[in-house]
Amino acid sequence: MKPEEKKIVRQEKDRQIIFEMINASISLAAMKGKHALERGCNCIACVNKRKRYLQNPQKQWKYRL
């Protein structure tokens, strides 16, 4: 197998693993239903909440137009 073909096969495997992880997190969120942010929970809802908490909070607008 040529190096280019190996690279393509590797990229396809990586892509498949990512899709499996996303599908697993979505199915976990559907199974758990609506719940509070839990430590160690890898459902898509908790992952998105954690991501929002880690981003810098936007400063509140003080001025009126």
Q: Detail the poorly predicted runs.
A: none
Query: In oligomeric terms, what are we looking at?
Result: single chain
Strand content: under 5%
Radius of gyration: 19 Å
What is the residue-averaged pLDDT?
85
Distance between the termini: 65 Å
Q: What percent of the residues sit in helical stretches (DSSP H or I)?
A: 55-70%
Main sheet? none
Query: What count of helical segments does DSSP give?
Result: 2
Structural class of the helix and strand makeup? mainly alpha
**What's the total number of strands?**
0
Q: Which word captures the global form?
A: flat
General description of the model:
Helices cover 63% and strands 0% of the residues. The model has no long low-confidence stretch (mean pLDDT 85). It contains two helices and no strands. The protein is mainly alpha-helical and 65 residues long. The chain is flat and about 65 Å long.
How are the elements arranged and paired?
Blueprint: H1 3-32, H2 44-54
Defining key terms:
mainly alpha
Outline of the structure:
With 65 residues, this protein is an all-alpha fold. Helix content is 63%, strand content 0%. It is flat and about 65 Å long.
